Amino acid sequence: xxxxxxxxxxxxxxxxxxxxxxxxxxxxxxxxxxxxxxxxxxxxxxxxxxxxxxxxxxxxxxxxxxxxxxxxxxxxxxxxxxxxxxxxxxxxxxxxxxxxxxxxxxxxxxxxxxxxxxxxxxxxxxxxxxxxxxxxxxxxxxxxxxxxxxxxxxxxxxxxxxxxxxxxxxxxxxxxxxxxxxxxxxxxxxxxxxxxxxxxxxxxxxxxxxxxxxxxxxxxxxxxxxxxxxxxxxx
Length: 235
Known about the structure:
Keywords: Kinase, Transferase, Tyrosine-protein kinase. By secondary structure, this protein is of the alpha/beta class. The protein is 38% helix and 11% strand. Helix 6 links the parallel strand 2 and strand 3. The longest helix is centred in the N-terminal third of the chain and has 15 residues.
């Protein structure tokens, strides 16, 4: 793998039994889709707020409304000091061992990969932090590429990060889907011309996400297999 976490080439696209072409690649958001990082995120944010801003209740609920964006961009939107990034990142690394994978995600990823579907991550995190976490969880090698918001000119909701994933995967937008739990994910997906799929198994704001009329709505990781290859197909 290189500095982006790129492995040896994209997977070979699969074909459904009915002759229709299913998605050849899936681009995932990370937090709230693959990993349940909300408790660690809250703790890191609380520590960073206390160190940089001082006493008072950290506005984590407002922070959550901007998830999917790059941390410095969220700080600018919220009017908080950019200096919060250093302790936030430090604490995120320190507490990374406490971040669990959502139930069913490893099995879903391995099944998709075994069926020849290319996998990528496009996250609001920095690339090094995202790859470090996925490696610690034993999932990094399942992805052709893992791209962070610091590795594109314009982070989500711009389409750049999804377009970069498509370029590495070697896949057409029409045969790619993006799975995310935030409006910024859906906006980024649509800007890149890929199907926007809402993941509702995390702590997302379901009403807000559904109001964006995603192309598909998933309530468990296993449902992604139906979207990609159908229920009846066996490996």
